[in-house]
Amino acid sequence: MIGTNSKRPPRVKEQRSFADALATASTPARRPVETSWDDPPKSELDGLGSRARPSGAIVPKRNPLPHNGASKRTGTRPVKVLLADDHPVVRRGLSALLAADNGFRVVGEAADGAETLRLVDELKPEIVVLDISMPEYNGLDVTRKLRRESPDVKVVVLTMHFAEEVARECLRAGARAYVLKSDADEDLLEAVRAVRDDRPFFTPRIKDMFYLGPRSCAPGAPRDAQGEIPIERLTQREQEIVKMLCEGLSNKEVASQVGISTRTVESHRNNIMHKLQIGAFSDLVRYAVRHKVVSA
Question: Are residues 164 and 116 located together in one domain of the fold?
Fold first, then answer.
């Protein structure tokens, strides 16, 4: 008789977008109960120790851990993450995003800088995802204090500020990653995975700004009567994207209307700001108003 294979393929968790997570995060957030992942019950250890080893069995020797900064994690327990943002709905959305990866566990949530510092001391998280703009202590002050008092805690800055100087200040304060809230659904998991593995992470738009600089045009680029680079320097497609972005459409909405990917929209946006020697999106909006690309 021919048997049937009863094995079922493993379930794969579906990764949700930040917007979807926020839309479904309607229940009040509750702080999970802290459990001891590192200390198994004594009865379990006794049971392991009482098992007889066959006579003559060879006991394998463990290789010493490398001393080159490599992670000592075994991968048997999730990384503990603390979320810090003064908006509850944002914290619930971030928690839902991180739930897509079993390698992370949200152990607590903080609504201001003082609570963040208290929970770091109480819950001992390995990663803190925090906003810059928070009451009590802002994100930069918290990051500096953690660097001095809890240097093993890795900070991921999640912010709405798209500015090179703000990103550089966060790095000087001790942050390991810088993610824009507008890119959280695509970049947050990648960022926490990177810092878990002792790698830095930057939102692609910020990384491009670091490498190319906001003043990447040639000094001799032609300028108009106001001393600005004329809008005609942009292609027709770039002008179209400027108009939609400055009218308030998100990268995903622009991508849907134009028929391109979100990453391509981000690439266009970077190129536009480099061409026009503009370092912040708010400056791009003002430029678009002055050049009558959009109405004030």
Answer: yes
Residue 44 lies in a domain: no
Q: Let me know whether 184 and 251 are in one domain.
A: no
Q: Name the residue range of residue 113's domain.
A: 74-204
Find all residues with CB under 8 Å of 263, minimum gap 6, and list them: 204
Q: What is the pLDDT of residues 153-179, one digit of tens each?
A: 999 998 887 767 778 888 888 999 998
Q: How far is CA 186 from CA 25, 136, 190, 193, 273, in A?
A: 18, 30, 8, 13, 22
Question: Which CATH number goes with the domain that contains 190?
Answer: 3.40.50.2300
For residue 160 the two structure tokens come to 């709405």
Higher-scoring residue by pLDDT: 242, 213: 242
Q: Which stretches does DSSP call E strand in the chain?
A: 79-84, 104-110, 127-130, 154-159, 177-180, 201-202
In CATH, what number is assigned to the domain containing residue 284? 1.10.10.10
Which residues are paired to 109 by β-bridges? 83
pLDDT of residue 117 exceeding 90, the answer is yes
* Cβ atoms of residues 228 and 287 within 8 Å: yes
Spatial distance between the Cα atoms of 85 and 95, rounded to a whole number of angstroms = 12
pLDDT digits (tens, 9 = 90+) for 184-221: 877 889 999 999 999 989 877 676 655 544 444 444 45
- For 213, the token pair is 């600089």
CA 148: distance to chain centroid? 22
Q: Are residues 83 and 192 in the same domain?
A: yes
- Express each pLDDT in 249-262 by its tens digit: 988 899 999 998 88
| Shared domain check, 129 and 91 | yes
Q: What is the pTM of this model?
A: 0.51
- Is 125 in a helix, a strand, or coil? coil
